[in-house]
Amino acid sequence: MPTFTSLDVTDVRFPTSRTLDGSDAMNQDPDYSAAYLDLRTSSGESGASLVFTIGRGNDVQGEAIRALSHHLVGRDVDEVLAGIGRAGAAMIEDSQLRWLGPEKGVMQMAIGAVVNALWDLRCMREGKPLWLLLAELSPEELVELVDLRYLEDVMTREEALEILERSVPGRAERIARLREEGYPAYTTTPGWLGYTDEKMERLLREARDEGFDMVKLKVGGDPADDLRRFGIARKVLGEDFPIAADANQRWGVAEAVAAMEALAPASPYWIEEPTSPDDVLAHAEIRRRIAPIRVATGEHVHNRVMFKQLLQAQAVDVVQIDATRVGGVHENLAILLLAARFDVPVCPHAGGVGLCEMVQHLAMLDYVAISGTVQDRRIEYVDHLHEHFVEPAIIEAGRYRAPELPGAGARMLPDSLSTHRFPDGPVWRGLLR
Amino acid sequence: MPTFTSLDVTDVRFPTSRTLDGSDAMNQDPDYSAAYLDLRTSSGESGASLVFTIGRGNDVQGEAIRALSHHLVGRDVDEVLAGIGRAGAAMIEDSQLRWLGPEKGVMQMAIGAVVNALWDLRCMREGKPLWLLLAELSPEELVELVDLRYLEDVMTREEALEILERSVPGRAERIARLREEGYPAYTTTPGWLGYTDEKMERLLREARDEGFDMVKLKVGGDPADDLRRFGIARKVLGEDFPIAADANQRWGVAEAVAAMEALAPASPYWIEEPTSPDDVLAHAEIRRRIAPIRVATGEHVHNRVMFKQLLQAQAVDVVQIDATRVGGVHENLAILLLAARFDVPVCPHAGGVGLCEMVQHLAMLDYVAISGTVQDRRIEYVDHLHEHFVEPAIIEAGRYRAPELPGAGARMLPDSLSTHRFPDGPVWRGLLR
Questions:
Q1: Domain Mandelate racemase/muconate lactonizing enzyme C-terminal: where (chains A, B) (predicted)?
Q2: Mean pLDDT (whole number) for A190-208
């Protein structure tokens, strides 16, 4: 009878600030990082997971994950995996840890990491990728995973079930289609603020030539510069190509409206994070005033209650889930259901370290078992750091190929972990010397 | 030229779960705790501060405070204290740490602890209690401390200045009056869910006899039980005595409305935290449906952007600031200004470890230099753990006496720190054996 033995966390960091990959209006010098969790058992099996961060504080995130050890260590693996929804809920309800959120920030991401590691372990045992394992659960089994507290004013258990039941017919067909055609993607690779015009132009051409049918550029620096960069992109890609803009929370309401009026001639496909991710009412006001430009947000939205309000207030046209921001698979399932309930498309945030690898499972679950469509939906893609994963995200002709290896996507190569361990791995020993 | 030398954090915990002090509908077994910060300098001066938690995770909170060391260690103390607003803003804007919030949870509370420790140090140097030091700053100096990003749709810099300037006349008179009469308080001491009826009844009598003119009871357990306990309180205190109810986030919208309809015959003075602290729209809906019962919230509201929305949406009748939940003095100043802008009274949350000692300074600042009134305002009081502080909060005839020692209120006695240090202080060595 195997038991959980430890929550081993490795502080993994990549020195990306040296190249300005990932630079935007609010995050000038990210070192893409992961608090990497290896959830170990007495049988030698393990569940892998991570929380993405951008450098400093990755150690704090690791401590937060370790602080959940008492929920699992010593417990029977079979029993926990059989009641995986309950195991996640118990961490959310931990009456002492709850004070540190509640349900937000470092502790919520830590809970998400543990939930995701449990699913990874379950996937390994059942020999399936996460998207498929979840998509084959019954509507009842899926709803059991969701914490409906604070959601029932917009979605009861019955309504959630109804959404899932509606998509049961056609699941097999969509699974086959997904495996054949993949899931649509868009790329942010060309769009970082720190790149020169020449580099951006070259990367835009490459993106189009590789088959992407949508790109995203960072904005929120100097408005004239934003418009100029959009102009270059329009010249390369043409008038009708969807080019989204991402302000990374740079503005207040008035600034956002002014900036989007200035950028309107370049027809941005959407404006992402125009203001604080906490500001539901400001998103709603901005959306109203810049229509028909669409508003997207989500990568920093900290839980299902905030997504609920963004949808209630008609504040967003696009919901951007993130694999490691909220309380894991269970909370993201709640958010996917809310989006379906309000008929708003989900276009997941990705990039970073492992976010593409992880979040693709959730988008594919959405297609097979929740919304039942890929209409207006694309997963973000950024072309770096994939080589460190056991099963890297694969893009073919601008689409994510469905992952087939067992797992939830976060498992990294042992050599990558040891090489980039902070501060004592060889990469950092060299840089910090 | 003194410099900062370290951010020393002590994990202090009190085994309060043994007595059910502090028990409520969501927090059944708190061990009142503090991540206690001693901000040390090369001259031997220090700034004291803390983040209140309820047990597990207090170590994670401590790690988060230590993660801010690079912002201060090695820097010139005089220079930092002269630009204390800028020092706080730099931590909020730390582009890598920001990812862990942004502006919420463990990292925001850590920033608050450092900001508050800087003010404590400045108070020690100037020989003044925090409330007085702040209340003697000019409107311009106060506004310089506030981060107006994301607030300007409801309050511009000019509007904030105007609020402060309006209260400049009469400051000296209010300071004198505060020192003479103190600041109104209410007590939660009798109202914890874990107490027997007999204990509650005795404590209610004592509260009235001590001069309190308002009390608060925890609710959110069994509705019949809530009504019964309110009935006991009404019998002891009479029909017109303000008795507030605190649900500690227990309900969704429908449950909150039903529970308050059931409790309405007992005329609760307000309902506190009827639902998730993140749910602005639910608070607004509940308030609309249970009027004229008032709605209060704030002890878990994680930043000024959330308070702004609660006020914009007319979701609250009472703003409850907390000394250690948000980004310290600076963010609480923003919240006090927002409340004044919307003409909503502030009744601070207190209790825990050191919250009474700390938050009284902010309420007194509000009286002297912001709202200019104590009308409908009271600071919460709970009667435990005060003996561990250098200057314990003092209640006389149901009012907080204005603190007079230099400092921001969080400084604990060295013996209390060493005795309750977790897990190796003598109190815990005994209990954990």
A1: 197-293
A2: 92
Work out whether strand B379-381 and strand B318-319 pair parallel, antiparallel, or are unpaired: unpaired
Determine, for residues B253 and A278 on separate chains, whether the beta-carbon distance falls below 8 Å: no
Q: Determine the CATH number of domain B4-128+417-431.
A: 3.30.390.10
| Nearest CA distance, B147 vs chain A (angstrom) | 12
**Are A50 and A7 in contact, with CB atoms under 8 Å apart?**
no
B312 close contact with A: CB closer than 8 A: yes
**From B63, B95, B312, residue closest to A59, measured CB to CB:** B63
- Bond into B169 cis (ω within 30): no
Å from B361 to nearest chain A CA? 23
Q: What is the mean pLDDT of each run of 10 residues along chain B (433 residues)?
A: 97 87 70 98 98 97 98 98 97 96 98 98 98 98 98 98 98 98 96 89 96 94 91 96 96 97 96 98 98 98 98 98 98 98 98 97 98 98 96 98 98 98 95 83
What's the confidence (pLDDT) of residue B360? Answer: 98
A354 touches chain B (CB under 8 A): no
CATH 3.20.20.120 domain locations along chain B = 164-415
Mutation site for A-interface testing, chosen from B192, B278, B301 by largest number of A Cβ within 10 Å: B278
CA B23 to chain centre: 18
Indicate which residues of A carry an active-site annotation. 218, 349
User: What pTM value is reported for the model?
Assistant: 0.97
A100 touches chain B (CB under 8 A): yes
Which residue in B71, B104, B216, B218 is the catalytic one? B218
Q: Which H, E and C letters describe chain A, residue by residue?
A: CCEEEEEEEEEEECCHHHCCCCCCCCCCCCCCEEEEEEEEECCCCEEEEEEEECCCCHHHHHHHHHCCHHHCECCEHHHHHHCHHHHHHHHHCCCCHHHHCCCCHHHHHHHHHHHHHHHHHHHHHHCCEHHHHHHCCCHHHHHHCCCCCCCCCCCCHHHHHHHHHHCCCCHHHHHHHHHHHCEEEEECHHHCCCCCHHHHHHHHHHHHHCCCCCEEEECCCCHHHHHHHHHHHHHHHCCCCCEEEECCCCCCHHHHHHHHHHHHHHCCCEEECCCCCCCHHHHHHHHHHHCCCEEEECCCCCCHHHHHHHHHCCCCCEECCCCCCCCHHHHHHHHHHHHHHCCCCECCCCCCCCHHHHHHHHHHHHHHHHCCCCCCCCEEECCCCHHHECCCCCEECCEECCCCCCECCCCECHHHHHHCECCCCHHHHHHHC
φ/ψ (deg, to 5) at A371? -75, -30
Calculate the CA A7 to chain-centre distance.
22
Average pLDDT over every residue of A101-124: 98
Helix, strand, coil share (%) of chain B residues, nearest 5: 45, 15, 40
Q: Which of B26, B302, B303 sits opposite A95 (nearest CB)?
A: B26
**Which part of chain A has CATH 3.30.390.10?**
4-128+417-431
State the smallest CA–CA distance between residue B282 and chain A in angstroms. Answer: 8
ipTM for this model: 0.97
* Residue B258 φ then ψ, to 5°: -65, -45
Write out pLDDT tens, residues A266-279: 999 999 999 999 99
The answer for residues whose C-beta is within 8 angstroms of residue B181's C-beta and 6 or more apart is B399
Q: What is the pLDDT of residues B319-371, one digit of tens each?
A: 999 999 999 999 999 999 999 999 999 999 999 999 999 999 999 999 999 99
Question: Which CATH homologous superfamily contains domain A164-415?
Answer: Enolase-like C-terminal domain (3.20.20.120)
B102/A254 touch (CB, cutoff 8 Å), yes or no: no
Q: How many CB pairs under 8 A join A and B?
A: 190
Contact A217, A191 (CB under 8 A): yes
